[in-house]
Write a structure and sequence with these properties.
Distance between the termini: 21 Å
Largest sheet: 7 strands, mixed
Helix content: 25-40%
Structural class: alpha/beta
Order of helices and strands: EHEHHEEHEHEHHEHEHEEEEEEHEEEHH
Strand content: 15-25%
Number of helices: 12
Number of strands: 17
Length: 408
C-alpha cells in the first residue's frame, strides 16, 4: 500500500515530523538506518545561544535574536511565527508524555559534565543549572566504577563559582556501572526509598542540593528522583554524562512510544541506494537490497555528516546520501585549512525554499520532498547552540508543508 508520507531518518526532526503528520491525519512510514543522535544529546532543549562566532555571551532571549541570523538560516526560512508555533506544540506534546521541560522565554545556563555553563532554552525540571546550584553547599554523587562522569571535576567547577562543593562516592544499585545499565537498574529498583534512605547519613550538614549524574532511570525517571528527594530531604538535580546520554534517550523513547501507539510502521536498518522520480516528483526510494518503498511525499531528516545524511567524498566535496540532492558548501574540505573546513562541514547541507523543498540554483528539485534538521544548509549547531530548536522547528514545518502538498 502506498503511504502518504515516507520519513527518512531517526533524528529529532524525523520524530517530530512523524508525530505531527499523524496528528494531521496522514499515513506515515518511517525508514531508519540507525538509532539517531539523540543518544548523544545532553539534557534540555537548546534553541539558540549565539548568533555569530564572535558572540562572547549567550543571547538571553533566543527567539528575539533570530532576525540577526543570516537570511538563509533555517530559522529565517521558517519565520518567527512558525518557530513559535512549533516550539509551543513540542512542549505541550512532550508534557503530555511526562517530560517536564521548563521554559520562560529566556536561556538558562545549564552545567555541562565539566561544570562549565552552556545556554539552554528549556532545561528539564531537575537539570543542574547555575541558578539551581548557586548555593552555599552542594554535594556531587559519584557512583563507584562509573567512568562517564567526573564528579571531582564538576565539584571543582562549582567551587570556583563560590559554592562549597564535595563529592560523595556511593555504590550503584548493582555491579553494573556503565551509564545505560545504571539507568536501567534504577528503573528496575524495587525499593528506591530504602536505597536513598541509606545515603542520607552520607550527606554533609547544610547540603542545599545533591547533584547526580543523569542515570536515575530511563522510563521511570520521575518516581525515582522523587523518591530520592523524599528520602534525602534535599533538592536533587541531574547533570548529563559523557555519551551515551540518558536524557536524550528518555526523549527519544517517549516519542517513539507515542509513535508505536499510533501504529506507525518503521523499517529499521535500511540504507537508501537510489530513487525513482519523474516530473520533479520523487515516487519511491530503493534500498540496497532492491526493495522499493513508495510514497506521495518524502521527508529527508537523516542528519548531517555525523549521522550519514551527508557524506564527505575523497575530493573534499559533500553529497546528500539518500536522494542524491545538490549540496551547498562554503568550500572543499582540506586538512591544511582545518578552521575553514570545520565551518564548511557544519554549514554544508541542502538548500531549500521557504517550504523546505530542495533547490538547485534557486529552482525546486522535487516538489514533494521536504528537508529538515541537520541535513539543511546555512547553520552551525556547534557554534550557535541551536541543534534541538532547529530540528523541532524544521521537522514541524516539513510536516506542515507535506500536509499542504497532500491537500493540494
Amino acid at each position: 500500500m502506498k503511504t502518504d508520507v515516507v520519513i527518512l531518518g531517526s533524528e529529532l526532526d524525523a520524530l517530530v515530523a512523524a508525530l505531527r503528520l499523524h496528528e494531521l491525519g496522514h499515513s506515515v512510514r518511517r525508514v531508519v538506518s540507525g538509532a539517531g543522535s539523540l543518544h548523544l544529546a545532553p539534557a534540555g532543549i537548546r534553541v539558540l545561544g549565539f548568533t555569530s562566532d564572535t558572540d562572547r555571551e549567550a543571547r538571553p532571549s533566543p527567539l528575539d535574536a533570530i532576525e540577526e541570523l543570516a537570511e538563509r538560516h533555517p530559522y529565517r526560512l521558517a519565520g518567527a511565527r512558525t518557530g513559535t508555533a512549533a516550539l509551543d506544540w513540542f512542549f505541550e506534546t512532550t508534557l503530555s508524555m511526562g517530560l517536564d521541560f521548563r521554559r520562560n522565554g529566556t536561556n538558562k545556563m545549564a552545567l555541562t559534565p565539566s561544570g562549565l555553563p552552556t545556554p539552554v532554552y528549556a532545561p528539564t525540571a531537575r537539570q543542574a543549572t547555575q541558578d539551581a546550584t548557586d548555593l552555599e553547599r552542594v554535594s556531587v554523587v559519584r557512583f563507584r566504577g562509573h567512568r562517564d562522569f567526573s564528579a571531582a571535576m564538576f565539584a571543582s567547577a562549582l567551587a570556583r563559582s563560590g559554592s562549597l562543593a564535595s563529592v560523595i562516592e556511593v555504590d550503584g544499585p548493582s555491579q553494573r556501572t556503565d551509564t545505560v545499565s545504571l539507568a536501567r537498574e534504577f528503573d528496575a529498583m524495587g525499593d528506591a526509598d530504602a536505597y536513598f534512605g541509606a545515603l542520607k547519613s552520607r550527606l554533609p550538614a547544610g547540603t542545599g542540593a545533591l547533584v547526580f549524574p543523569a542515570v536515575l532511570g530511563l522510563r521511570r525517571h520521575q518516581p525515582v528522583i522523587e523518591a530520592a528527594e523524599h528520602r534525602l530531604g534535599v533538592r536533587c538535580l541531574e547533570v548529563s554524562t559523557l555519551p551515551p546520554s540518558v536524557p536524550g534517550m528518555r526523549l527519544q523513547m517517549a516519542i517513539e512510544t507515542r509513535l508505536r501507539e499510533a501504529h506507525i510502521p518503521v523499517h529499521t536498518g535500511v540504507r537508501c541506494a537510489g530513487r525513482r522520480a519523474a516530473n520533479q516528483r520523487c515516487e519511491a526510494i530503493v534500498d540496497r537490497m532492491g526493495r522499493v518503498i513508495e510514497g506521495s511525499v518524502f521527508v529527508v531528516a537523516t542528519g548531517g555528516v555525523l549521522m550519514g545524511g551527508l557524506q564527505v567524498q575523497s575530493d573534499g566535496q559533500i553529497r546528500e546520501a539518500n536522494l542524491g540532492l545538490e549540496v551547498f558548501q562554503t568550500g572543499p574540505l582540506a586538512a591544511e585549512r582545518i578552521d575553514e573546513s570545520l565551518d564548511a562541514l557544519h554549514r554544508a547541507g541542502v538548500e531549500t525554499d521557504s517550504h523546505l523543498r530542495p533547490t538547485d540554483n534557486g529552482s525546486v528539485q522535487f516538489e514533494n520532498v521536504f528537508i529538515s534538521g541537520r541535513t539543511l544548509a546555512h547553520w552551525n549547531p556547534a557554534t550557535e547552540a541551536s541543534a534541538d530548536g532547529v530540528s523541532i522547528v524544521t521537522g514541524w514545518l516539513a510536516a506542515q508543508s507535506a500536509c499542504d502538498y497532500l491537500r493540494g
